[in-house]
Design brief:
- The chain is of the alpha/beta class and about 260 residues long.
- The protein has eight helices and twelve strands.
- The strands form two sheets. It has an eight-stranded mixed beta sheet, with helices on both faces. A four-stranded antiparallel beta sheet has the order 6-7-9-8, covered by helices on one side.
- Strand 8 and strand 9 form a beta hairpin.
- Helix 2 (about 45-55) crosses helix 8 (about 240-250), helix 4 (about 100-115) runs antiparallel to helix 5 (about 145-155) and helix 6 (about 180-185) packs parallel to helix 7.
- The two termini are about 35 Å apart.
Length: about 260
Amino acid sequence: MNGPTHPGPRECPGWAQDWALFLDIDGTLLDLAPEPQAVRIPPDLRSQLEVLAQGLGGALALVSGRPLSDIDRFFPGGFDAAGTHGVQWRLGGIATDPGPAVADALTGIAEWLRAGTQGLSGVLLERKPHAVALHYRLAPQREAQIQSLAARAAQTLGPDFRLQAGKLVVEILPVAAGKGAAIERFMGRPPYAGRTPVFVGDDRTDEDGFAVVNRLGGRSVRVGEGGETQARWRLASPDAVRDWLAGLVASLPRDGI
């Protein structure tokens, strides 16, 4: 890649008036951890996000595979957010989700998966409000077994659900879920409408978000080295993302803080 590897104030001097910023959490804002609840939240990160949201006129959203309850626990304050890969969606404090039918369908399959993974050391079943995730970061040798088990579960649930693979995790979620759809939904509403979308993510689960942002003429940023991606920019690590965000905060006009 020639030139800058990521968009910044030098390349985009009017960014605060132009950008709508979408940020993944795990592997992007935060370093990955062996278990989902073991992540560490840098003490100044939330305040940086609050300052950036204000400087962007409110056009900042967290877009994550985590449910809204996790997002709010890690980043209190009611940020605009898409949780569970867009199954949950919140703008201006008003949240929507697919309702009890999805949760009820997943309850039964979660119990089936719990029985199927019993005794598989290193495999963690995470029951989200509107998805089920099987993590095998602590047991990567079980990938084929876990993928097969998840595929059987999704087939049992039928065409209203699908599989989504990530970094040493596979999830079962509603077929309409996707970060790209969530970003596009934000871009149709104030204060996001009319701005240029910028999405930063690190995983296969972020690729549909990159595709939507590219189609909308925005800036897609992949975190991490190597790997095929639709993203057009790069940041090396979550540390680099946090440094980039700190640089954006520092470059805000005084009346944008």
